[in-house]
Amino acid sequence: MVRARQVAATARREHGAVGVSAGQQVSSRVLTVPNVISLLRLLLVPVFAVLIVRGDDVWALVVLAVSGASDWLDGVLARRLDQVSRLGQMLDPAADRLFILVTLLGLAWRDVVPVWLVVVIVGRDLLLVGLLPLLARHGYGPLPVSFAGKAGTFALLYAFPLLLLAEMPGWLGDVAAVTGWAFTWWGVGLYWLAGAQYVLQTRSLVVRDRAAAGESDDTGTTTREAP
């Protein structure tokens, strides 16, 4: 019985907390087109940081736009080219969160966004980090990104270049400010909605595992006492 539970835990670590959709294969390949795109997005993080600190807003805006487009592109290519991989499932959200963090810090340093926005968004990511030890204790890896989480990330990645563009004078800056803050509020709302979903999903998995462990122990006890 203990051996069976160990095998089940290993399988959960390999395949994630939620099973892959029917017909979709998750490979262990490293060199795939989506993974290369995610890696390039990671490499753009320090580039953006330097540009925003130097005040090169035009190029910083270009980097933000390219990053947002690549975030959409790698997911589409992974599905269409049948190149969904375990590395990509970790690399893509990691690149997204790192880019969001660095972008937020850069924009806050430039007084483009208020500090409270940084706290609200980073606070949700810290909440998810706090769930990882509990999931690992029960044999699960990081939870797959939910639809709400991905939509929130998209909204924020589209909001940031608009908020930077809002620094320009005239009607273009005014329109960018309104649109950018609309995307920001939607992004924050969806980001925290996804956070609540992750918490509830983690709780459900832990409760289910504890119930299964209790049933296993009861079965084991009954077997040992049987004549």
Question: Can you walk through the features of this model?
Answer:
The structure is a single chain. By secondary structure, the protein is an all-alpha fold. The chain has one domain (2-225): Four Helix Bundle (Hemerythrin (Met), subunit A), CATH 1.20.120. The chain has seven helices and no strands. The chain has helices at 2-15, 33-54, 57-80, 86-109, 115-137, 147-165, 171-225. The chain is globular and about 70 Å long. 26% of the residues are buried.
What is the element layout, followed by pairings?
Layout: H1 2-15, H2 33-54, H3 57-80, H4 86-109, H5 115-137, H6 147-165, H7 171-225
Helix pairs in contact: 2-3, 2-4, 3-4, 3-6, 4-5, 4-6, 5-7, 6-7
Fraction of residues in β-strands = under 5%
User: Which segments are poorly predicted (pLDDT under 50) over 5 or more consecutive residues?
Assistant: 1-22, 221-227
Class computed from helices, strands and strand pairing: mainly alpha
Mean pLDDT over the residues: 79
Query: Can you identify the CATH class?
Result: Mainly Alpha
H/E element order = HHHHHHH
CATH architecture: Up-down Bundle
Span between N and C termini?
19 Å
Brief overview, please?
This protein has helices spanning 2-15, 33-54, 57-80, 86-109, 115-137, 147-165, 171-225.
Main features:
227 residues, mainly alpha, Four Helix Bundle (Hemerythrin (Met), subunit A), disordered N terminus
